[in-house]
Amino acid sequence: MSRALEEAQETIDESVEKVQEVLSQFSRLATLGALVDVVLHDGRTALTRIAYVLRRLNKLVGRKREEDEQLASALAKMHVDLTAQEQALDRLFTRVEPLSGRRRGRSRALSLQTAIDDAVAVHEATLEKHGITVSGEDVTVTADPVTSPRWSTTS
Known about the structure:
This protein is mainly alpha-helical. It is built from four helices and three strands; from the N terminus they run ααβααββ. The protein has a three-stranded antiparallel β-sheet. The radius of gyration is 25 Å and the shape is elongated. It starts with a helix and ends with a strand.
């Protein structure tokens, strides 16, 4: 009887330890989600400011073109380069946003291929470097694009 109680206690202790590990992992994920929220908020705020400055830069290019073509050309090139970087950050934030837990939506019809393409795009440079391509038939699924781990095919 004593041995059976000891074995039961060991089993309970092991189970408690596993539950504590899972809770610890969930706690780290919640902290990461909160950090992603902060990064997205601050990053989007910075992007709004960058977009404003880019509009002002574009107006300056128009005014300077008459005075100094070389300066206007250099400013125009800077505008194009900075706009491309702003758009790259915006795309990155859009891809990361579903991980933040900020938005919860309703299930709707989604293109599975589009979801895969968006996920793969984050690793586009690495995939190209190794000659990896991702392709397949498109399937429409019904899911919450942010939270649903359950995908049900509709066609």
